[in-house]
Specification:
Elements lengths: L3 H8 L15 H11 L5 H14 L6 H25 L14 E15 L2 E11 L2 H9 L5 E9 L1 H7 L1
Antiparallel strand pairs: 1-2, 1-3
Helix pairs in contact: 1-2, 1-3, 2-4, 3-4
The structure holds zinc ion.
């Protein structure tokens, strides 16, 4: 549906055709044309429909003619929309685990100890290494207590789903 204003604007383009209801006493006939034009899905559909009518008619169309052309344009637009929807790229699986839920990940493990209130506690931190460059760089600059480890892990996409 398009608004009455938009429909009237487009119907007005037919003024040049024979028998266009241009007299004030023909306002009921004009309203019928506008109502028929309002059946368009969008302003664009209606524009195309009116352009098609202007292209091959000398006489002003009847409401039924407008409805018919508008219906054709609506269908064409819906088919186009459906085709566009089909071509839309769908979100792929998780780039880390490809949807399996487990992925081999490499991380830099750092073991440190710290003294809290006279008690020595071990601390282990993990830093994930994403690219080969990062992994190479980490291997070259290992400090004491550091290790580069690869292993299968529950993928982060799974924990996101669980929470
Ligand atoms: Zn994943």
């Amino acid at each position: 549906m398009v608004s009455e204003t938009i429909a009237l604007e487009q119907v007005n383009r037919l003024w040049q055709l024979n028998y266009y209801p241009r007299d004030p006493e023909q306002s009921a006939a004009l309203r019928e044309l506008v109502t028929a034009a309002q059946g368009a899905d969008s302003e664009n559909c209606l524009k195309t429909a009116i352009t098609a009518i202007l292209y091959d008619s000398e006489d002003c169309p009847k409401p039924a003619d407008i409805r018919r052309v508008v219906r054709v344009e609506n269908e064409r637009e819906r088919e186009l929309e459906a085709a566009r929807e089909k071509e839309k790229p769908r979100p792929g699986p998780c780039p880390f685990c490809y949807g399996i839920g487990f992925a081999t990940r490499t991380y830099l493990l750092t073991r440190t100890t710290e003294e809290i209130d006279g008690e020595v506690k071990a601390r282990v931190t993990k830093k994930y290494l994403i690219s080969d460059e990062e992994i190479e760089a980490a291997k070259k600059s290992l400090a004491e207590g550091q290790e580069v480890i690869s292993g299968g892990e529950r993928c982060s996409c799974q924990t996101k789903m669980a929470s």
